[in-house]
Amino acid sequence: MTTTQRYTDYDTWAWLYNETMGPDYGKAQLTLLERVLLPELPTNAAILDLCCGTGQLMQPLLDAGYQVTGLDGSAAMLDYARQNAPQGHYLLEDARTFHLPSQFDAAFSTSASLNHIMALTDLVQVFRNVYQALQPGGLFIFDLNHPEQMQKWWCGKIVEGEITPGYAWRLTPEYQPEVSEGAFHVEIFQAQPLASWIARFTQPFKQTLYRLLSLRRLTRFRLRLLSRFEKVEPTWTRSHLTYRVKGHALPEVQTALQTVGFTHIVIQTIDGDPTLDANHSAHFICHKGSG
Ligand SMILES: C[S@@+](CC[C@H](N)C(=O)[O-])C[C@H]1O[C@@H](n2cnc3c(N)ncnc32)[C@H](O)[C@@H]1O
User: Fold this and answer.
1) Could you tell which of 9, 49, 61, 72 is best to mutate to test the pocket of ligand 1, judged by most ligand atoms within 8 Å of the CB?
2) For 103-113, how does the pLDDT look when each residue is reduced to its tens digit (9 = 90+)?
């Protein structure tokens, strides 16, 4: 174990994550769970959402009758999760150090949360903790961004971002293949009261432009504007968050799962294609042996 501190880095991003990524990512991941996980489970199964974040994925599962527990290291993310899925159970714990009795029929971890586990030894410990928390035969599903994919796409350019009347944000990922480590930078701009009459005069035009640029088909132009947003809105305050990630080699992850005792390990794309390439993240599906 390289560290025993709880992972709290998302506390500062939580309000924005809850409005943007949380709802967006939840939808895509739910489709996968509906296809792969739910058909395998009894109707009132107990499910662990490991690194549940703001919990948008939990409410549809609770609505369907499952008992869902969300675990996360960030207290602020969990505060939003409690609002988004009030009937869920919650644990403010670190994935590397939690210990639960064998009570869950399934566990999942979505949106590449486990890429934040930087050391392979820690990842093994996470798998061990999940294994312990599952009932015999229990299913574990998680996704990871992998080195080939990160090398292709994480190249220091803005890849996502939004502009709203009150705030704007842009996300820039980068990757260093020599050490299989990367980071993504989240820069947040927040509007301030307009000081000059010129700013008050031009603001309605800018707001119309920002609304227009929120259209999906204008993403390229939105990102271009975001790349120089500090010049476009010089009075908006700017904050900068950085999230470190590890590009774990997929064969090493598979071995780590086997070491802990997981069996029937399948790696596929989110659409179920067993051929992984640089354009897709890796979705792992595996079982705890039925003892
Ligand atoms: C990208 S967000 C994903 C949230 C959610 N699963 C989703 O799909 O929207 C990553 C989450 O993992 C959590 N996380 C990362 N490392 C963690 C750790 N070691 N222990 C507990 N939570 C962790 C963060 O706090 C954050 O909420």
Assistant:
1) 72
2) 999 999 999 99
